[in-house]
Amino acid sequence: MSSSSQVLPPGIGPSQHRQFFDELAKVVGDENISRDASTGALIGSHQQQSYGDPYALVNQDQHLPSGAVRPVSVEEVNEADAYAIVEPGVSFFDLYEEIKRRDLALWPSCAAIGWGSVVGNTLDHGFGYTPDGVHTDAQCGMEVVLPKGELLRTGMGAMTDSRLFPLYKPRFGPRIDGLFYQSNLGVVTKLGIHITPAPEAYTACELSVPNERDLSQLVELLANLQRRGVFTNHPSISNVFRQAILSPDDTVKAKLAPHFGLGKAVPESILDELHSIHGWGFWKAEFGLQGDGDVVPALENSLRRAITKIPGAQLEVKQFGGISGKFLRGDEVEIRAVPHTGVPTLEALSLMDYRMAQGSGHTDFAPVVPTSGPELLEWYLAAKDMVSAAKLGFFADFHAYSRYIIPIVLVVYAPEEKERADELCKKLIDDAFRRGLTTYRTHVEFMDQIRSHFSYNGHALAKLVDSFKATMDPNGILSPGKSGIGGTK
Fold it and tell me: Where is each FAD linked oxidase N-terminal domain found (predicted)?
């Protein structure tokens, strides 16, 4: 990429830009500098390109060279208190492999695609699938470099050499960890994360309901069961399209194949046929029951009583372990695409293939919705129509929690379809906002738009955060415009 096509920071010319990187190279070495889109960017441990270096959805040439992540130490894993302290370059695979190497009785939470950063996922409000899968809740203690170079530790870490750094979240005085989530107020260099202890027994559950409109009852039931503690890891809900796309059955693949490719979408008639032939539910929720060996069977009984409220609901289970005093390792349980036992996987990447084009990518829209089934169903039906009109597939990656739902619409598109994908995302954002909803995270292109949704009392919250940015980073050095913060610099 030539310097003329680079997107430079406001007020910075090409010569100043080069001088900055020359000075930086004297400190960290030129091999550690990404000056453009073709050099210096890290290759991930699983050969993923431009690791840690984001590209725009609409135009890959509009690229602002940015930081890559190199600190890769798993500083500590404590089995007794069930926590880890990790640096930003530690992936979910790295943490899992360290726990496995030491044969620790822990199930670390991991995201759907295991090559991601534990720190990066947590700071972007990401989640996994164990009982400690809400990573913002599991996070305990941070080490942060501020824009002016100061190093601080949050929580009990602010007390020199405190052993409570990864154990106790509140500390004396205000908690400030949240300032460094989805922000540009500092660089997190270390993070404590709580981990779920391995259970004696685990029952893998698949709960299917037959009809599209059963979604309403399904999510209300799942939320209620979580509030009551019947299960504590959140369910992942898939629709027929997702079940078909990820099916290993060759007959399913043959049925779908004519409808793969640019500008194509699998017709509902084909999905209805597969739904009928294979006896799938229209919706399938995957989750687990876990605990001591004498507890899990009782939880299963509670679950079976509860699902009778939904006509036609079917529950498939598979039990593991159950021996008193013997704790299951994650890989002793059947490995599935949704990593409820903390074993990372890359299986979800296979869905990229269905556009039949090299360089296909994905984005998503992920609003936060109350556990009101009718409200979710109404939003879903409208979103489904918009995806269909865009001639793309509605891949449902819905996540049910005890008090809210995150229904992710995963949009897979080929490079030639990026404009359509972009327009679809804009329509989904606008439609949700009209319903009083918005997403919990978004692509960099839409950050200003999403931030504008939080407008209570004349955008009071945005003004407060901007004042933090002006004080902490008056020169706008760190990620200008991230989440819309300090975007005028």
Answer: 74-155
